[in-house]
């Protein structure tokens, strides 16, 4: 499932390429026909993300709300002026970087400066190829949005619906603060987390407590803060909880900027710059079970691996049994 940084990149991409342009909305699959009819011919005026939810608001007040879930993905294309990524969403790989189309001037390709947020799926056959007209939609295309210069297709999303302003507010009120929102209140996260006796590893995955954190960011921030994922959340001090929040602001910000999840500090990947850290040098514990810990240097202790993989809230949990003891 794409984590929050990918949805923020998605929102920025729509802001750059769809907001302010009249949109032709259809549902080739048919399941979203009524919703598409409500949006067809209208102009997007705002594109935002809150955690893993994407909201595209139109000039008549209706909002397209999408949650990609485990299998959802957006695919993009357009003419030579439509310089974006090829796709965002499943299939996801750890720290997957986006593939951008060619810029209008091949001699000056668009830099990876974080201003064109996007995520490219492996095996994309159209990256780098501009097309003024969209191809025939796949049978599973839930919604297609087309402007004068580009198009976007959505498949496989767990949520795809049109909301009124009141309904948008209700959805957002059920979400916790988002570390990627500059206006978010870290204190609200501390208050919500400190009220529960559930394991902090489970709490970080609860979108009603903190929005946008997924399996990778959960494992990596708990390791970086040297916190045992099994500790009850209410046993953490305010300072520890704020430390987790501040670390997530940092790590998820890198994800937005780079389009890849990179959590390692420079001293733990000597000679490897941030831009080249993925995949071998990108993480401390995620998918590194059985390997040597980059911090404590332990591979095994008393016959057991230092970095282990367990299960928590039906997802794999990675930790260093030495550093996070």
UniProtKB/TrEMBL annotation:
Keyword list, A-Z: DNA damage, DNA repair, DNA-binding, Endonuclease, Glycosidase, Hydrolase, Lyase, Metal-binding, Multifunctional enzyme, Nuclease, Zinc, Zinc-finger
FPG-type domain ranges (all copies): 284-325
N-terminal signal peptide: none
Gene Ontology terms describing biological process: base-excision repair
Biased composition (Basic and acidic residues): 101-115
CDD domains: AcNei1_N
Domain Formamidopyrimidine-DNA glycosylase catalytic as annotated: residue spans: 2-89
Biased composition (Low complexity): 119-141
Top-rank taxon: Bacteria
Alphabetized GO MF terms: class I DNA-(apurinic or apyrimidinic site) endonuclease activity; damaged DNA binding; oxidized pyrimidine nucleobase lesion DNA N-glycosylase activity; zinc ion binding
Listed EC numbers: 4.2.99.18
Region Disordered, annotated ranges: 101-141
Family: Belongs to the FPG family.
Name under which the protein is recorded: DNA-(apurinic or apyrimidinic site) lyase
């Amino acid at each position: 499932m794409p984590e929050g940084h990918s949805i923020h990149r998605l929102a920025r991409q729509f802001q750059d390429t769809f907001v302010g342009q009249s949109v032709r909305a259809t549902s080739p699959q048919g399941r979203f026909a009524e919703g598409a009819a409500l949006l067809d011919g209208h102009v997007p005026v705002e594109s935002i993300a809150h955690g893993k939810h994407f909201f595209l608001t139109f000039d008549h007040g209706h909002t397209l709300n999408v949650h990609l879930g485990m299998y959802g993905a957006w695919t993009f294309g357009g003419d030579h002026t439509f310089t974006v990524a090829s796709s965002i969403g499943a299939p996801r790989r750890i720290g997957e970087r986006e593939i951008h189309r060619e810029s209008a001037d091949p001699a000056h390709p668009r830099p990876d400066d974080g201003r064109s947020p996007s995520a490219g799926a492996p095996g994309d056959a159209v990256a780098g190829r501009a097309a003024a007209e969209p191809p025939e939609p796949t049978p599973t295309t839930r919604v297609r949005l087309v402007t004068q210069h580009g198009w976007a297709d959505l498949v496989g999303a767990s949520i795809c619906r049109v909301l009124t302003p009141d309904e948008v507010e209700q959805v957002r009120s059920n979400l916790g603060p988002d570390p990627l929102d500059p206006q978010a209140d870290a204190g609200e996260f501390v208050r919500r987390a400190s009220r529960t006796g559930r394991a902090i590893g489970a709490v970080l995955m609860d979108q009603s407590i903190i929005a946008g954190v997924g399996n990778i960011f959960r494992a990596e921030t708990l390791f970086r803060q040297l916190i045992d994922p099994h500790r009850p959340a209410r046993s953490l001090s305010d300072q520890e909880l704020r430390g987790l929040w501040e670390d997530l602001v940092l790590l998820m910000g890198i994800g937005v900027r780079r389009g890849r999840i990179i959590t390692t500090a420079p001293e733990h990947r000597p000679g490897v710059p941030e831009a080249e850290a993925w995949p071998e040098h990108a993480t401390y514990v995620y998918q590194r079970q059985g390997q040597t810990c980059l911090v404590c240097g332990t591979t095994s202790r008393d016959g057991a691996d230092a970095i282990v993989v367990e299960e928590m809230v039906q997802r794999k949990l990675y930790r260093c049994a030495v550093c996070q003891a």
